[in-house]
Amino acid sequence: MSFFSKLRERLTKSSSKIGQGLDDLVGEGSPEPQQAEAEQAPLARDLDPAERQAAPAAVPSPEPARPEPEQPVPSPEAAPDPAPRPDPIPMPQPVQQPPASAMEKKSGLMGRLFGGAASAPAEPRRELDDEMLEELEDTLVAADMGVDTALRVTANIAEGRMGRRVSSTELKTLLAGEITRIMTPAARPLPLYPKTPQVVLVVGVNGSGKTTTIGKLASQFRAAGKNVVIAAGDTFRAAAVEQLQVWGQRAGVPVMTAPEGSDPASLAFDAMTKAEAEGADLLMIDTAGRLQNRADLMEELAKIVRVIRKKDPSAPHNTLLVLDATTGQNALSQVETFQKLADVSGLVMTKLDGTARGGVLVALADRFGLPIHAIGVGEQIDDLDAFEPEDFARALVGL
Question: What is the Cα–Cα distance from 397 to 203, expressed in whole angstroms?
Answer without folding.
Answer: 30
